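User: Let's play a game. I give you a shape written as tokens, and you guess the letters that built it. Ready? Here's round one.
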């Protein structure tokens, strides 16, 4: 079998954008509709949400995970999540992670490491979250934005796993962080 170079493999299903209609520009996201040419030559449309990207922090203090509880309007319910927030234009993800940790929880950290990054919903959005592990925490004062209403608590791994079962934790970034923490506790590696 003939070897294909990685560019050919990566592009074999490429959809070429023929036209873009910008539908909405919000404070955080924008929506566009792209007309695309499919690999078979036919035309189709793609609705795409553009997002500046975000960071999230798995913060461990005294063998507990620091979480925040807040109301999520799209879900019409409260959620328990790890601290997170959007990237400002040109902002370094690690700097943003330290900022969000401080703002939402009041904690500073002595050690921060990259865990991984991932796309939240690549079928319709380009949002990428960069996930960090923060340790050696010291507590200070929360610095919430004026439109942020949340509470902060620390939970055990067992509580986190139970919250996943109960759907109190149901967002991808927090579930990913809980399972990364579980692996970290078992192996000592992130």
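Assistant: Ready! My guess for every position:
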């Amino acid at each position: 079998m003939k070897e294909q170079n990685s560019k050919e493999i990566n592009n074999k299903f490429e959809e070429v954008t023929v036209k873009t209609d910008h539908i909405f520009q919000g404070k955080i996201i924008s929506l566009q509709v792209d007309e695309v040419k499919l690999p078979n030559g036919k035309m189709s449309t793609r609705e795409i949400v553009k997002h500046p990207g975000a960071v999230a922090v798995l913060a461990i203090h005294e063998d507990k995970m620091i979480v925040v509880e807040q109301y999520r309007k799209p879900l019409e319910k409260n959620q328990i999540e790890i601290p997170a927030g959007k990237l400002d234009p040109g902002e370094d993800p690690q700097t943003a992670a330290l900022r969000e940790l401080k703002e939402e929880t009041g904690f500073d950290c002595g050690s921060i490491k990259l865990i991984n990054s991932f796309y939240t919903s690549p079928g319709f959005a380009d949002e990428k979250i960069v996930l960090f592990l923060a340790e050696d925490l010291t507590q200070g004062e929360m610095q919430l934005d004026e439109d942020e209403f949340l509470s902060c608590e620390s939970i055990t791994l067992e509580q986190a796993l139970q919250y996943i079962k109960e759907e109190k934790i149901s967002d991808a970034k927090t579930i990913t962080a809980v399972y990364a923490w579980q692996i970290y506790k078992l192996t000592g590696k992130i």
